[in-house]
Design a protein that fits this description.
Order of helices and strands: HHHHHEEEEHHHHHEHH
Structural class: alpha+beta
Radius of gyration: 23 Å
Helix content: 55-70%
Number of domains: 1
Number of helices: 12
Strand content: 5-15%
Low-confidence stretches: 67-74, 271-278, 305-310
Shape: globular
Largest sheet: 5 strands, mixed
Number of strands: 5
């Protein structure tokens, strides 16, 4: 098997690091799970795009005018097209479509963030230490946070009417936890990674688990200042909240609300990372992805050595 195929296969394998072992990932500390998942997905995109670029290179060189440089490039790339010129063209098309889709998602993310930011005189703005607390008119429950130069925690009057003072404090604490950890960038990154690997069906379970881990991360941080019962009541009050873009840090953003509510109903665990202490947990979340990534590095170096021989 040609080295570019191995590089691409490693990228695709890392994208599926969650699907067969979701329970192990959820058993980790939320912060640990989120960081490891993000690292796996970032490395997955890197290897996947590198493999596609290497496979597409012969198709990109073929149309060049006959010249000494073009002939040298073709000799250098010989052996990097295991599927022939047709496969190289397919890889080039897939790489181009994926890149354009990712750039379009990045632009849409910026537009969504601009649309979600609440400017004066809309709503009631209350200055809090480090952020603005904005209350929007309307009966539909809304709760989300936006980072940046002017951080905001935005809630609706409809949600405020559903919760008491403790519940309101829990909502604000959850969103402030998102702000302090910069989760809006994590959510935006998850959406971009999901788009970059749109052709990989098993990447969505990984990004879903990443979003869930970010919400649990904010939950656990919030329970340092409010009770678990108050936070659980706030999450229940926002169950039918208005839908928000997937790249937004919001109280009810994670799809596994039932599981979050169940975790909040239990006493705080003494060691959220107990599952990771098992041999299987370490193998799944550290050794396994590292071994797969190592294979990709070896394949990439083999490709580089092949190119440098010319």
């Amino acid at each position: 098997m040609a080295a570019p195929v191995v590089v691409l296969a490693v990228g695709l394998a890392l994208a599926g690091c969650v699907a067969p072992n979701e329970r192990v990932w959820i058993g980790l500390m939320p912060r640990t799970a989120a960081r490891r998942l993000m690292h796996c997905l970032l490395i997955s995109v890197g290897f996947s795009y590198l493999g596609l670029a290497l496979l597409a290179a012969p198709a990109l060189v073929a149309p060049l005018p006959r010249s000494a440089l073009a002939m040298a490039c073709q000799r250098m790339l010989a052996g990097l097209e295991p599927a022939g010129l047709v496969g190289a063209r397919l890889a080039a098309v897939l790489l181009l479509v994926s890149t354009c889709a990712t750039l379009a998602r990045a632009r849409r993310t910026r537009r969504d963030r601009a649309a979600l930011r609440v400017e004066l005189p809309v709503g009631h703005h209350e200055r809090r230490p480090g952020f603005d607390l904005v209350t929007l008119p309307g009966r539909t429950p809304v709760a989300y946070s936006l980072g940046g130069r002017r951080p905001q925690v935005v809630i609706s009057q409809g949600l405020r009417d559903r919760v008491d003072e403790q519940g309101l404090a829990a909502v604000v604490a959850h969103e402030v936890a998102h702000l302090r950890a910069g989760h809006d960038r994590w959510f935006a990154g998850a959406s971009l990674l999901e788009t970059a690997l749109w052709f990989v069906p098993w990447v969505r379970p990984a990004t879903a688990t990443l979003r869930f881990s970010l919400e649990r991360w904010a939950d656990e941080q919030a329970t340092g200042t409010v009770s678990r019962g108050a936070l659980r009541a706030a999450v229940l009050a926002a169950v039918d909240a208005a839908p928000l873009p997937s790249q937004t840090a919001a109280l009810s953003q994670a799809g596994a609300l039932v599981q979050r509510l169940a975790m909040l109903a239990e006493p705080p665990p003494g060691h959220l990372g107990d599952a990771a202490s098992t041999r299987y947990g370490r193998l799944t979340t550290i050794v396994g992805p590292a071994a797969v990534a190592g294979c990709g590095v070896v394949a990439a170096l083999s490709t580089l050595a092949h190119l440098c021989t010319f």
